[in-house]
Amino acid sequence: MEFLEISPFTAKMIRIANGRPHPTNLPMKQALLLSLCLIPFIAPLTSCERKGPAETTGEKIDNAAEEIKDAVEPKGPVEKAGEKVDDALNH
Fold first, then answer.
1. What tens digit of pLDDT does each residue of 4-20 get?
2. Cα separation of 18 and 9, whole Å?
3. CA–CA separation, 35 vs 30, rounded Å?
4. For position 21, what pLDDT does the model report?
5. How far is Cα 80 from Cα 34, in angstroms, rounded to an integer?
6. pLDDT tens-digit readout, 25-38
């Protein structure tokens, strides 16, 4: 009885065709799936509450630009009410 020599790729395709996953791919897929599921829960833990100097400076610039825009184009009553609500909720 003679055996035919087949390439690793052909052997893999035969295993896939028979319904058995390749043994080295399964743990990698599980690890990838687990990490993708955990990222939304871990990401908020890495943020901090204190503002750095760049963020504070950026907010000051944003506020100055908003004041200039308000001087040129005044706000309506609904927009003013919305800002008061945002300020009350500390947003």
1. 677 787 777 676 666 65
2. 14
3. 9
4. 58
5. 46
6. 557 788 888 888 98
Domain ranges of the chain: 8-46, 53-88
Exposed e or buried b per residue across 29-46, where buried means at least 16 C-beta atoms within 10 angstroms of its C-beta: eeeeeeeeeeeeeeeeee
Q: Secondary structure of the chain in the HEC alphabet? A: CCCCCCCHHHHHHHHHHCCCCCCCHHHHHHHHHHHHHHHHHHHHHHCCCCCCHHHHHHHHHHHHHHHHHHHHCCCCHHHHHHHHHHHHCCC
Tens of pLDDT, residue by residue over 42-66, are 887 777 778 888 989 999 999 999 8
How far is it, in rounded angstroms, from Cα 10 to Cα 3?
15
Taking the C-alpha atoms of residue 25 and residue 31, their distance in angstroms, rounded to an integer, is 10
pTM (whole model) above 0.70 = no
